[in-house]
């Protein structure tokens, strides 16, 4: 197949996405596909000649290690094509020539339904969930409202909007410790655990540019995640950071966390984890694959935290590890995701 692998973009998860995209593209080429890696923001501004030739003369792809958080202003300034569009020059034109677009994007304008809606309007097949499910899952507040109404336990939370209430009021209204997190981003960017009023003020100040954040009850316990692939839940995986919580560094620096798959839990807990992950996946109308994050407290109670519609595909990402536990290697996983985009009905 002719496949465009979209990565990069203008999300704070840009660097993670580029790593995911490069590995996906290499895997698809090893499977015999004509896969072209495209940075969604830069597009094809450096390509000379007809763009369809990219499928025949495949540009080289290097495996890019995950770097730190990107300087998005520098990324914007370095684009040669001066356009307000978040989609680079020639991207949609090339996508329209492909059999399928493999979304290696993460975060805003990649995982939030906007690029999915654009591709759907153009009649271009793409991997993962549809625009509505993606948008719902990206908004942690809406997701928590829906899962709570469906009987799924989730930590108590409230939305704090800058400008509507002073930070002092936000601080006074929350019990400590609590978690401060962006409403619509991933990779733990902007997430902080506040144990004191001073730490809470600092976390709120750090996230002020976002406009609003979630203030969530802190639940101490074991971090466990469960992937869903092709309509079934995969074995759970427990994450044990060597220092602190499962933040950006601990997620993407090799050796920063111990990951155990399947998680060492009782069979009844494993069943509950898998059932809940699949329940939330179906509740939001998701397709092909997702990854759900849980906390299990000291009493064995499970708390749903969030769900990811385009799980990371980096060397340290969890979805490939869970798939490997049931005999699905990385290349096979990529093939399954691409096949479902071409042959499956959009949820």
Short description:
The chain has helices at 14-30, 72-78, 91-97, 114-121, 131-138, 140-149, 167-172, 197-206, 248-252, 267-283, 318-324, 330-343, and strands at 2-7, 34-39, 100-103, 157-161, 178-182, 192-194, 212-217, 221-229, 232-233, 237-241, 257-260, 289-297, 302-308. The chain is an alpha+beta fold.
Explain this structure to me?
With 347 residues, this protein is α+β, with helices and mostly antiparallel strands. The chain folds into three domains: 2-126, Rossmann fold; 138-153 and 220-343, 2-Layer Sandwich (D-amino Acid Aminotransferase, Chain A, domain 1), CATH 3.30.470.20; 157-217, Dna Ligase, domain 1. The protein has helices at residues 14-30, 72-78, 91-97, 114-121, 131-138, 140-149, 167-172, 197-206, 248-252, 267-283, 318-324, 330-343; strands at residues 2-7, 34-39, 100-103, 157-161, 178-182, 192-194, 212-217, 221-229, 232-233, 237-241, 257-260, 289-297, 302-308. Strands 8, 9, 10, 11, 12 and 13 form a six-stranded antiparallel β-sheet that branches. A four-stranded antiparallel β-sheet has the order 4-7-5-6, with helices on one face. A three-stranded parallel β-sheet has the order 2-1-3, with helices on both faces. β12 (289-297) and β13 (302-308) form a beta hairpin.
Largest sheet: 6 strands, antiparallel
Number of domains: 3
Distance, first to last CA: 23 Å
How helix-rich are the residues, as a percent range? 25-40%
CATH architecture of the largest domain: 2-Layer Sandwich
- The CATH homologous superfamily of the largest domain corresponds to ATP-grasp fold, B domain
Shape: globular
User: What is the tally of helical segments?
Assistant: 12
Succession of helices and strands: EHEHHEHHHEHEEHEEEEHEHEEHH
Overall mean pLDDT? 89
The name of the CATH topology of the largest domain is: D-amino Acid Aminotransferase, Chain A, domain 1
